[in-house]
Amino acid sequence: MSLVNMWASLVGWAFLPDLVTNFLQSQYYKLWYEPATTPRPGESRHREHRRWFYTLVIATYLAYTVTQTMVSLPPNYYKTLAVAPSAFRPKELRSHFRKLSLQYHPDKTTVTLDNTTNDHEGHMIHLRNAYEALNDPIQRFGYELVGNEYRECSQCTTAGDYLHRARSNLIGSAIGSGIVLVIFHFINRNQFGRVLRVLGVLALATFELYLLTHTSVPLPNSHPAVTDGPLFVGGQSPVSPAPALLHALRGWYGLTTLTLFELSIVLHQLYWTFVMALSQLGPVWFPSHDEQHRQLLQQCRVLSEAVLRETTRLFLGSFAPFRDPQPRAELRREMGNLAVESLILRDPKLAEALDKAYQRLDSPAGEPTADRGQSS
């Protein structure tokens, strides 16, 4: 997997499930629910529906990623020459190479309907590289272990050199996976499946180490030209670089043309794909205490927003009569009088005088007040 594809996959796992789930759930509510009965965020029905939609999206995206991983593998030398890795004869290899050489010979370059020229020369070079690699036990051993990198390893002249290169790659891959796990540990908010992730990396490294330590190193005199018998007999002939376990996997899962190097790539991609799926689905079906607390806080937030809306409605309703100018003017006048009275009542003498004035206003006409009787 290239760096661009890896980052595209990470971005896809980070954003696509939530976006697609929200879209599907909203469309489902529009089709099957009335606006008044639509479950709202924070309600139990809304969470249950979201859980199932989210699981469906994750499962679909997981199946697509796994399929894309298997389909995106470029054809290796076995596919190019149409021979099986587990058993083929040198005569069969030569026959297929000659047939394809005649078919893709540069002299037979043709022009297609869209005025483009078929690259027969490039394909012919690929065919020759494939034939030379599979026909030579040492090169075939290196191709099985390190892929096309065997051509770049100029200092690799023996099977032991290729084996050393493959083990160095395995160590680098294990260290890189460990670094990614540490980074994933800090950026992953739910931390679900931490133990499973570590065990998965250890199991993957152990399996790859088993494949490397159980390879059959080709002998110096095991050139296929010595005999016209099978190069492979159950995966244990001196020329076979693959252990018996790989041949069993090829038979069980239909991985009939995968090399050791390609199998390692596929396993790594599938491992990280399942890690991303597990980190997405785990908290949904097995929420932690922190997640439960977060859900309770979400419910409290929904209730507080509902109370705020109702309080605002009642507050605005209580001031509804004062929307007209005349009630507002009366209210303003009364509030001004209350303000003046509050200032007067702060002074005892003014408060006493105001009280006497109110008494005179309330007393019947012609009746003397208490003050008048005292003065007379």
Automatic annotation (TrEMBL):
Keyword Transmembrane in record: yes
Region (Disordered), start-end ranges: 357-376
GO molecular function, one term: protein-folding chaperone binding
Record keywords: Chaperone, Membrane, Transmembrane, Transmembrane helix
UniProt xrefs under InterPro entries: DnaJ_domain (IPR001623), Hsp70_co-chaperone_J-domain (IPR051948), J_dom_sf (IPR036869)
GO terms under biological process: ERAD pathway
J domain boundaries: 76-147
Transmembrane portions of the chain: 52-71, 170-188, 195-213
GO cellular component: endoplasmic reticulum
Domain of life, source organism: Eukaryota
PANTHER family: DNAJ HOMOLOG SUBFAMILY B MEMBER 9 (PTHR44360)
Protein name: J domain-containing protein
Organism annotation: Tieghemiomyces parasiticus
Organism classification: Eukaryota, Fungi, Fungi incertae sedis, Zoopagomycota, Kickxellomycotina
